[in-house]
Write a structure and sequence with these properties.
The protein contains 10 helices and 15 strands. It is α+β, with helices and mostly antiparallel strands and 382 residues long. Helix 2 runs antiparallel to helix 3 and helix 3 crosses helix 6. The longest helix has 17 residues. 25% of the residues are buried.
């Protein structure tokens, strides 16, 4: 992520008004409707909108100022912050500046593009196991999509006929109405009802697709999933979604990650928490045990005299950091298991031990991990 303040051309102590003014100037310059849909302009528009969306929000801005992009994702990578796509960017722009009217912002009529709109985006959920998250994976997905009509080549017109300019809107795709009120002159803009906002009309429709220019199809795509993703993260496959009507560009495919629960672990960002039951003698005398990890096992030494509920840490045995070096840790919560049934021999030995064992203290020594990991207390039932 580039420096967000540099992206908007403002100082780090810029006021909210300065940030909004800088964004409006840049967003107006790079708006797709003002640049005939140029890809470079689209990328610039998304970049400045993303910077604005972070810096206009006091909490996001404070997190970014302190931790950079990592702060936007939340402690331990648990946040759901994502880079904006074009749809998000346009919604943000219209949310904060749409009341001015596109004609007012862009300096008059004729700046909006006519023609068919691009195809609809597809959103698909991709189930992942924890092992796939740990190693990264490649998935193949089969989808139902809209493809260009085979009968007309996607034009929507029969026998190769070409669309003609709409006479109602003059090809602009929109109808503007000027009204006067006590607030002054108001301009309202709406899609042309005759051509549906496309600026052109088809006089003889294709019988195969009834003029839509698309038909049902199937598509198989491969998705490279990076290691370290979380549920809610998504990848955008540009231009691989539904075909647009009458020759318009395809939409995108948004692949949303859905990490399945692993009953062995609780995930906390890039750390994995594992509950390890041990016997009384293992806790009292110490022991060397084998525990599961994602994709394997590891040995862990139980120190003598460990108390139930204490935490042990295996460095680097957690999940990899997304788009970064290193891995999280494996946190082992030791729980002393008390049998609910005893044999006669076990009961007799414990009765002997009860006569000579040390009296329990009134208060246990503080656990250095207890404060940090108190948030997992509820997950373990107390």
């Amino acid at each position: 992520m580039a420096d967000l303040y540099a992206t908007l051309g403002v100082a780090r102590d810029a006021s909210d008004a300065d940030i909004k003014q800088a964004y409006r100037k840049l967003a107006t310059k790079w708006h797709p409707d003002r640049n005939d849909g140029a890809k470079e302009a689209e990328e610039k528009f998304k970049e400045v909108t993303e910077a604005y969306d972070v810096l206009r929000d006091p909490e996001k801005r404070a997190a970014y100022d302190r931790y950079g992009e990592a702060g936007l994702r939340g402690a331990g990578g648990r946040g759901q912050y994502q880079h904006v796509d074009l749809s998000d960017a346009l919604n943000i722009f219209m949310r904060d500046f749409g009341g001015f009217g596109m004609g007012d912002i862009f300096g008059g009529a004729g700046q909006r593009r006519g023609g068919p709109r691009r195809g609809a985006d597809l959103r698909v959920r991709l189930p992942l196991t924890l092992e796939e998250v740990a190693n990264g994976t490649k998935k193949t997905i089969k989808l139902n999509v809209s493809d260009p009509c085979a009968g007309c080549g996607g034009t929507g017109a029969a026998n190769g006929a070409q669309p003609v300019r709409c006479t109602t809107c003059g090809g602009s795709g929109e109808i503007r109405r000027v009204q006067r009120s006590f607030l002054g002159q108001m301009v309202s803009v709406s899609p042309c009802p005759a051509c549906g906002g496309e600026g052109q009309r088809i006089e003889k429709l294709c019988e195969t697709c009834n003029g839509r220019g698309v038909q049902a199809g199937e598509k198989t795509v491969e998705v490279d999933v990076p290691a370290g993703v979380s549920s809610g993260d998504y990848l955008t496959l540009r231009g691989q979604g539904n075909a647009g009507p009458r020759g318009a560009a395809r939409g995108d495919i948004l692949v949303v990650m859905e990490v399945e629960d692993d009953e062995r672990f609780i995930r906390d960002g890039n750390d994995l928490i594992y509950e390890l039951p041990v016997t009384y003698t293992q806790a009292a005398l110490g022991s060397d045990v084998e525990i599961p990890t994602v994709g394997g096992t590891a040995r862990v030494k139980i120190p003598a005299g460990i108390q139930s509920g204490r935490m042990l840490r295996l460095r680097g045995k957690g999940l990899p950091h997304l788009q970064g070096a290193g891995r999280g840790d494996m946190i082992i919560r030791v729980v002393v298991w008390i049998p609910d049934e005893l044999t006669a021999e076990q009961a007799a030995l414990l009765q002997k031990l009860a006569k000579i064992e040390t009296k329990a203290p009134t208060k246990l020594a503080p656990d250095e991990d207890r404060g940090f990991w108190s948030k997992v207390k509820e997950a373990f039932g107390g």
